[in-house]
Design goal:
By secondary structure, the chain is mainly beta. 7% of the residues lie in helices and 45% in strands. The strands form 2 sheets. It has a 4-stranded antiparallel sheet with strand order 3-2-6-7, with no helix packed on it. A hairpin with a 2-residue loop joins β6 and β7 (70-78). The radius of gyration is 17 Å and the shape is elongated. 9% of the residues are buried.
């Protein structure tokens, strides 16, 4: 599940992409938009729901919102591994944080 909260006037066109390819609303990839009720500036919550993720779905997902005044992009990287053996590989890719310590 990816979610973007967008405020803009005039209204926006919102598009989702995976690795620069447009995502079409389907049973596998649900694209939802919901208007916020109590907002002085028009606000929407745009959601991409991946109903079941497979390793081939891994990649960079982007939400692009645009109107006549310009465009904004929000992106996230999805990692899907076929089994838990690759979890160590994923954790090795994560930035280390100062103060993170493991007990020995």
């Amino acid at each position: 599940l990816f979610r973007s909260r967008i405020r803009a006037s005039p209204p926006l066109q919102v598009h989702w992409y995976r690795e620069h390819h447009p995502i079409i609303d389907s049973a596998d990839f649900r694209i939802l938009r919901k208007k916020a009720c109590l907002s002085a500036v028009p606000e929407e919550v745009c959601t991409l729901v991946i109903t079941e993720a497979y390793p081939e779905d891994s990649g960079i997902f982007k939400c692009v919102a645009e109107n006549q005044d310009g465009a904004v992009v929000s992106s996230a990287h999805l990692f899907v591994f076929p089994d838990t053996e690759n979890l160590d590989e994923f954790e090795a890719l994560q930035p280390s944080h100062v103060g993170d310590r493991k007990s020995t």
